[in-house]
Write a structure and sequence with these properties.
With 288 residues, the chain is α+β, with helices and mostly antiparallel strands. The chain has helices at 3-16, 22-43, 47-65, 113-124, 144-148, 167-170, 223-235, 241-251, 266-282, and strands at 87-94, 102-108, 132-136, 139-142, 158-161, 177-182, 188-198, 208-213. It folds into three domains: 3-43, no CATH class; 47-215 and 263-287, Roll (Structural Genomics Hypothetical 15.5 Kd Protein In mrcA-pckA Intergenic Region, Chain A), CATH 3.10.290.30; 221-259, no CATH class. The model is unreliable at 38-69 and 151-156 (pLDDT under 50).
């Protein structure tokens, strides 16, 4: 990247993230340059090497839960009906969030991991238009499309189709943990832990949010740093009327309205999750 391009990039960042510090700009620039280098390095890999890598990923996915390209029946769209179902209570929280944000979710152990990702996104209140992936023990679990399009955001980690493994495969017992990242730009890390396990079977239709706290941060706010800055300005902790007005306009707040980072409605969260589960069973979850 030339000095001119670097200056232009910094200017774009300053415009998109008002009030951002120079340290934060440097971090974002470094991340951008790292991604560019990664993309350039990957593009030099030969077609045969790429084909070999895809073959390995397909084999790994097949061993984990099914042959690539095999269409799931209605019963298997949500869960792996060939495996027994137990009742899991999962505790998921956003790492380093300036306001405590968590959700407790009841799911069947034979739920496909990819569907858990969709449920987490919905339960927290994310819009769902960014990429996501699970990570555990140096292994990435992401969508088949991400793998096929070579979105190797783990910088060398092994990638497995998230729809070929179940929750129980990666979270076998109480206390097991996994990391779920939503939006590789803002980098929202959700720490997921198994709070309890019951031998009582759970139907997929009975998936629900049992409790929660905190509003979902706004999309594209700039990650935990950007969110913290926004809250400081809106609360008056940082006195900047111009930036406050800018944030209020961006959030769509009307005169007299305020942003409440503690807001959470359990009923709405469960309505959204219920709608999502119904769409998955119909095979239409991508049409949300």
């Amino acid at each position: 990247m030339t000095d001119k391009e670097l200056d232009e990039l910094k200017e774009v960042i300053r415009k998109d993230y008002p009030g951002i510090s120079e340290a934060e700009i440097s971090f974002m620039v470094s991340f951008f340059e790292m991604m560019q280098a990664k993309t350039a390095a990957y593009s030099t890999v030969g077609a045969s090497e790429t084909a070999t890598s895809n073959t390995k990923n397909s084999q790994g996915a097949g061993n984990a839960g099914g042959a690539k390209g095999k269409k799931k029946s209605k019963a298997d769209r949500l869960v792996d009906s060939n495996k027994p179902s137990k009742t899991y209570i999962l505790y998921a929280s956003i790492e380093q969030c300036p306001v405590k944000v968590f959700r407790r979710i009841k799911v069947p152990s034979n739920l496909w991991l990819g569907n858990l990702g969709k449920i987490l996104i919905t339960a927290f209140g994310w819009a769902g238009y960014h990429l996501s992936q699970f990570t555990k023990g140096g292994v990435e679990y992401t969508s088949r499309d991400n793998i096929e399009e070579s979105f190797d955001f783990g910088y060398g980690g092994r990638a497995i189709d998230e729809m070929t493994v179940t929750v129980a495969d990666v979270l076998p017992q109480k206390g097991s943990t996994i990391s779920f990242e939503y939006d590789f730009g803002d980098g929202w890390i959700h720490n997921v832990r198994v709070s309890s396990v019951s031998d009582e079977p759970l139907r997929g239709e009975d998936i629900c949010v049992t409790s929660g706290k905190g509003a979902c941060p706004p999309e594209d706010v700039g990650g935990v740093w950007g969110y913290a800055q926004m809250l400081d300005i809106l609360s008056g902790k940082v006195d900047d009327p111009e930036e406050k007005a800018s944030y209020e306009e961006w959030l769509g707040l009307q005169e007299g309205e305020t942003y409440d980072p503690e807001e959470f409605d359990l009923e709405i969260a469960n309505e959204d999750v219920e709608d999502l589960v119904a769409l998955i069973l119909k095979g239409k979850e991508d049409s949300r």
